[in-house]
Amino acid sequence: MRLEQIAPHDVKMSCFFNNNRCNRPSRPIIISCGGGNTGATGLPGPVGATGPTGPTGPSITGATGPIGPTGPTGVTGPTGATGLSITGPTGIAGPTGPTGPTGATGPTGPTGISVTGATGATGATGATGATGPTGATGPIGLSITGPTGATGPIGPTGPTGATGDAGLSITGPTGATGATGATGPTGPTGADGVSITGPTGPTGVTGPTGPTGATGATGPTGAAGLSITGPTGPTGPTGATGATGATGATGGAAATSFGSFFSTASQAVNNTTFPLQTTRQAVGMTINNATGVVTLPTIGTYSIEYGVYVASGATANDAVSLRVNGVVVPGTSRGLENNTMITGSAIVTTTAANSTLNIQINSSNNVTFLDNDGINGYLTIIKIA
Q1: CA distance 346 to 349
Q2: For 244-373, where are the E strands, in sequence order?
Q3: Model's pTM, two decimal places?
């Protein structure tokens, strides 16, 4: 069944059945109204001729419409393959930049521990070095010869010695040389003769020396020549070592009794013994440090030195001295003076075992002994015999 749509006004009643026509419209339509089978499709009709081209319509460009909204961002494309990386050759180094300013000096490190090692054995003496080149010759000094002094008188001719035995030649003393005569003209050179040297004869016995002639008068002194000192020449080689000197006399025996005592703390002493708080050494003797009294067990001769530093309190009549067994040693008394180190020495021979020795302060009031930079009193004793 085939239905072709038509406008309503074109349809009045059009149906044809068994070729009956009624009210045939201006446009044919076909309505299949049930019943028989649809016939086969007929062959297409021929293509009609192309109608003429209609006239070109007017060209009217409409107004541009508004810009539409921005579309959504597109999906990110896949990452491209990594490009080929080719490192070029290293360029030529640029010029060195200017030196930067010197940095501040760092703090000084702590002082290292100084440990002096034992002195090594003396090394063998090295070979003598080659002699250096001779220095350049200095300029020739100006030589000014003074006038020759007058010739002294000719001494008398000595007597002719007696003729000796045959073969002995005894020459008497030579007289003074006479004045030189004028030089004669040079003669022609003779032909070369045959030179035959005979054997040397035996040396004759030397005759006795004749008496010395009188000394001629001294000529006047010539003018002083100009002295120009040339550069100093190189030092000559060291001379050979001299012979070892004789061994000296044997020294005395080592001391068997000695002591050294001192004090550093401030102390006030008034007319009593001087305390010595510190013992440095005490061999063959003892000390009471609180009183400064030393006991000498053996009889002998002792060399003694002492000193005290007065800080303040000393008056004109105050003094210091050495005492043996409580008695002042003659020649050891010294006046005290403020801010002064007072020293003394003596040779003392004891006459009894266990003799005592001490520094004694003789004062009318307290005297202060103090040295801020060192000791304020000391006593040294050495037995020498």
Answers
A1: 10
A2: 258-263, 267-269, 278-283, 286-288, 293-296, 301-312, 319-324, 327-328, 334-335, 340-349, 355-362, 367-369
A3: 0.38
DSSP letter at 366 equals -
Nearest-angstrom CA–CA distance, 115 and 112: 9
SS3 8: helix
Q: For residues 336 and 313, is the Cβ–Cβ distance under 8 A?
A: no
The more confident residue out of 243 and 2 is 243
In a 10 Å sphere around its CB, with 0-12 CB exposed, 13-18 middle and 19+ buried, how is residue 368 labelled? middle
Is the per-residue pLDDT at 190 higher than 60? no
Position 81 scores a pLDDT of 65
Given a cut of 50, whether residue 270 has pLDDT beyond it is yes
Nearest to 156 by CA among 218, 217, 211, 209: 211
DSSP track, 77-144: PPPPPPPP--PPPPPPPPPPPPPPPPPPPPPPPPPPP--PPPPPPPPPPPPPPPPPPPPPPPPPPPP-
- Residues of the chain with pLDDT > 90, as a percent, come to 32
- For the record, the structure tokens of 114 come out as 């100084």
Whole-angstrom distance, CA of residue 10 vs CA of residue 4: 12
Q: Which of 296, 338, 355, 344 is nearest to 320 (CA)?
A: 344
Q: Which amino acid is at 20?
A: N
Q: For 31-59, what is each residue's pLDDT tens digit? A: 343 445 666 777 777 777 877 877 776 66
3-state secondary structure 125-146: CCCCCCCCCCCCCCCCCCCCCC
- pLDDT band of 111, cuts 50, 70, 90: low
Residue 20 pLDDT class (50, 70, 90 cuts)? very low
Torsion of the alpha carbons at 372, 373, 377 and 381, rounded to the nearest 10: 160
Q: What is the pLDDT of residues 321-337, one digit of tens each?
A: 999 999 999 999 999 99
Q: How far apart are CA 277 and CA 121, in angstroms?
A: 42
Q: Are 340 and 309 in contact (CB under 8 A)?
A: yes
Sole residue written with tokens 């501040």: 104
Closest CA to 310 of 357, 359, 348: 359
* CA angle centred on 35, ends 29 and 38, rounded to 5°: 60
